[in-house]
Amino acid sequence: MDAQVADNPVSERERDDPDKAKAPARPSPLANPTVRIVLVIIALLVAIGLAWMAIQWWTIGRYIQSTNDAFLQADQETVSPRVAGYVDAVLVADNQNVVAGQPLVVIDPRDPKAKLEQTEGQVAQGRASIAQTEAQIRQQEAQIAQAKAQLAGQLTTAGYDAREVDRYAPLAANGAETADKLEQLKQTRDQARSQAEAGAASLQSARRQLGILKAEIGVSQAQIDQAEAQARQARVDVDSTVVRASMAGRIGDRSARPGQYVQPGTRMMSVVPLRAIYLVANFKETQIGRMRPGQPVEISVDALGGRKLKGVVDSFAPGTGAQFALIPPANATGNFTKIVQRVPVRIHVDVPDDVRPVILPGLSVTVAVDTRSASGR
């Protein structure tokens, strides 16, 4: 019995199930030529795909530096008044598009206009004062001419009286004329001399008065110049009561309301130049070694469902973000742990017109910079 079992080995399971013992053995799937061909094709495709990925990484991928620490930005303008006063009217609404020079807010102009009228009155007063002084100068010049004529007559009289004394002195000495006559002539000569001296002093005083009047014109002209400067400033203040947009953009953060009192520098609203959008990407310091201005950038905007936009590297910040923090790190004190720093990189964005309305500052993006140009490729 044992010899039969050894010659015809049958498992206990087959003895229990005679039908299974009679079933033929299942062939291997690899025995099918079609399966083997399919597997070979799949292996070739996988190998080709891996080789293609390796080539792509070697030729392109290793030069692409990307980060999702990037946000769209715009150099927005804060709208503030130059003069103090009450807001008369707000001419724009929230999120309204404006153009450069468009009026935004009107401030009560009555106080600036009153100052302008006051300074213009000072200018008119100064000009009238100059006209009056010029008339006085012409009058003084006439008085100087009169004083010159009087002095000339007085000098002539004094000379005649002096010659009379010289002529009568020998006659009085010879007894041909009396001594009283000579004394009268001397007295007349001395009076003529005194009058000539007085006339010369009067002429000199008149000339000095002319200089004073001309100096008064200079003072009045300086006052006019000062008043005109104040008038120009007052005109600027009057013009500044209408606050205008200095650039084209969209209104945001509007806080100005009619009746509100504002002072110079008060924040009333902001103008965001949406057509001047750019982005700042904060790359790790280990990523910027090959980056150069002018390199192409591929930008994926989250708000557009990952749609790709084009851009160009514009410039690099003059330091890492930590250097411009409110409290920069002091690594020379205490224990030091090295942390990879990030460098802000400014990138110019080419925004198509069809997506410009939804490209707003603050949106998150993912950027990828192609640095192959730094490797001579």
What does this 3D model show about the protein?
This protein is α+β, with helices and mostly antiparallel strands and 377 residues long. It folds into three domains: 63-75 and 274-375, Efflux pump adaptor protein, beta barrel domain (Elongation Factor Tu (Ef-tu), domain 3, Beta Barrel), CATH 2.40.30; 86-107 and 242-271, OB fold (Dihydrolipoamide Acetyltransferase, E2P); 110-240, Orthogonal Bundle (Helix Hairpins). The chain contains six helices and 14 strands. It has a six-stranded antiparallel barrel with strand order 1-10-13-12-11-14. A four-stranded antiparallel beta sheet has the order 2-9-7-4, with no helix packed on it. A four-stranded antiparallel beta sheet has the order 6-5-3-8. Strand 11 (296-301) and strand 12 (307-316) form a beta hairpin. It is rod-shaped and about 195 Å long. It starts with a helix and ends in a 7-residue tail after the last strand. The model is unreliable at 1-7 (pLDDT under 50).
The low-pLDDT segments are 1-7
How would you characterize the largest beta sheet?
6 strands, antiparallel, barrel
Sheet/helix structural class: alpha+beta
Specify the CATH class of the largest domain.
Answer: Mainly Alpha
Query: Strands of the largest sheet, in order across it?
Result: 1-10-13-12-11-14
> Mean of the pLDDT scores?
84
Distance between the termini: 85 Å
Helicity, as a percent range: 40-55%
* Name given to the CATH architecture of the largest domain: Orthogonal Bundle
Q: Any idea how many domains? A: 3
CATH topology of the largest domain: Helix Hairpins
Beta percentage is: 15-25%
Q: How many beta-strand runs?
A: 14
| Secondary-structure element series | HHHHEEEEEHHEEEEEEEEE
Shape: rod-shaped
Gyration radius over CA: 53 Å
